[in-house]
Amino acid sequence: MRKSSFVQQVPFLQITIPYVIGVLLGQALPKSGYALILLAWGIALGSVPIFFHFTDRFALRGIVAFAAFLAAGCSLSQLQTSHAILNHEECTYTGILLSSPIKKSASFQADCKVTPLYPYLTHKKLWEKTRIYVDTHCSIQGKLPGDSITFTTQLKAIQNRGNPNEFNYAGYMLAHGFRYTGYVKQDQLWVGNNSGTFKLLRWADQCRSWLLTQFRLRGIQGQELAVLAALTTGDRILMSDELKFNYSTAGGMHILAVSGLHVGILYLFLNWLFPFRIHPSGYRFARFATITACLWFYAFLTGLSPSVLRATFMFSFFVIGSSCLRKTSSYNNLLASAFIILVINPLEIYKVGFQFSYLAVLGILFFQPRIESIFPKIQHKPVQWLWQLVTVSIAAQLFTFPLALYYFHQYPVYFLLTNIVLIPAVWLILAGSLLFTLCSPLPLLPDFLGVLLQGLLKCNNIWVTFISSLPASCINSIPFSPYALALTFLALAFVVVLITQSKTKLLPQLLMATGILIQLPNLNPYPKYASYGELILYNTYPELIISIIDQRKHYLITRNIIDPATHKKVLQLQNFWIERGILKNTCRLADFNRYSCCHDGNKLFLLQDSQSFHLEYGSLTLHRLRKTDRNQVPTPNNGSTTYLLVDRESGYPANSLLTDRNHLVLLIHGGMSRKQETAWIDFAQTHKMSWYTLSRGACRIRFQNTLNQS
């Protein structure tokens, strides 16, 4: 296909690409970048008068369109990040629930839109999406979207903890529209009745609750119900951590995330129920209305999540094109759905699900027909169907595996075995769920379907558990930097160009990209054997996690963590350890809750009790201060620096503290009251001591590698 004909058949290509570039520029540029926006609009509008005097109107029209959509993307992106500045002091807010509260371990999580009450509001009334955590004794459980809520608390901007290579939680929440969070105590919350707003969300929540109730009444329970809830409503709260781990290891986690795969399966099932016919026209209209209504009802049932919306838009375009007897481009439908989603919320482009979804569909559209053509003359239908299933899985993996390595640092080895069973099973489960919903008023058929669904889901979970238990089922701790991600996609782009152009002169570029990929391990920003070691105190309140990194050795010291291998806060730190090239089998755990003393050559760990500890490693000394000994601290050896760690349990500083303050650095852990933290900071400043508070982020202290010392 010629380049010009491809552009003509995919008109949204000329719209989506400049718009996406504008969205990325809008987040990269400061607010002063509005000058660039005005300049782009000026170019677009200023080119209009000379349009009729320009010989190459097609080129000029392309320039004007590029500038206009670039400016539109930049404008909408920066407009999306502008928000109301809420009072950071404790005040009263009124708002409306956006979703039903979710039970957490020690609180309820509630998403709502709020605005400060008078007299705190001194400007026009602005509504801000906020995530609050409510005391478990509050009567908020069972409330629905649209219910009014009033509470008193101190809202804080959502921020990252400042640990190295941590997950960008603030950016993740910003992409979902949340900028503030707070904790509400029992006597500071008042929940009202239905406010009459968010009726669609309220009805969708009620439909999901009714559907789950029907599943339970028909005998579906346990982890089978949890998987069925994830497939039909997108709710994974009921799933156990062990089952989630099995799905992730086996390469089937995408099955649980309601996305384009589920909408595509539903679309194929509806196409099978209502086959396409050219005549009569009334049937074509009824088919279009039925399939479109079912697709959007499913999107509505899953809470109108963006992953389902973008797939519903795309398949709706397919249905419209076929009903109008017009041949539509799959690439154009894909870009059109992406453009509509990004116009509604430009920050969707930063969501991992958005990136995975579109890259998977793009890989299927481009690679699947070419891979399938390797064996074009398969006569047996079951074998042909199995081969098509394998080609779809491989094609989707070709475009998504770089993202999987970059975000999760793992790769499932047996993903083909998993998908060969899971995808047909999901097809049957979704079809059975649809029939179950339609037949729920009948007396016997729903019971029979419930038994079938329970058995199918049980077999599904058994297969996933078996795959995850196979030897080397998942390769973990794969270092994959942003440089590797960019170069991998560059190599894929070379492959695409080579296939589409069929020109051997592009072979040197492909070989060059392959050669660059071979050198990817050398692009790791952390050398295999760094010339320095690090003592790192992470910002992980209330837990205390300390790392001592000495070349490839890693000493992990924790408190109040029973199993670091499964603890969430420890897992959040693993990306840094992977990028640093630390071997997992060199990690050593020391528990503060019991007395222990560990010697390792010229290094010493001395852990005392749950109230205090003293750590020495080469020339480093770290001492946690407790209330009983806050008037005295060990004197530094040979003039070396001693790091003094204080937290909420250390009490307030005493004037008689320390004799040699010149060789002491004060480290303030989280969880203190503002009064206590201010007292320690004032103490350090008064006595001209160096100090650092972990609320700003992790404290990283470099030292010379002790392994290089004789």
What class would the helix/strand composition place it in? alpha+beta
Number of strands: 22
pLDDT averaged over residues: 76
Work out the helix count: 22
Task: State the low-pLDDT regions, or none.
Answer: 585-597
Computed over alpha carbons, the radius of gyration is: 29 Å
Identify the overall geometry.
Answer: globular
CA-CA gap between termini: 68 Å
Biggest sheet character: 8 strands, mixed
Per DSSP, what share of the residues sits in E-state strands of 2 or more residues?
15-25%
* Helix coverage percent: 40-55%
Task: Characterize the structure shown.
With 710 residues, the protein is α+β, with helices and mostly antiparallel strands. The protein is built from 22 helices and 22 strands. α8 (241-250) packs across α17 and α16 (415-438) runs antiparallel to α17 (445-468). The longest helix has 28 residues, at 381-408. The termini are far apart. The model is unreliable at 585-597 (pLDDT under 50).
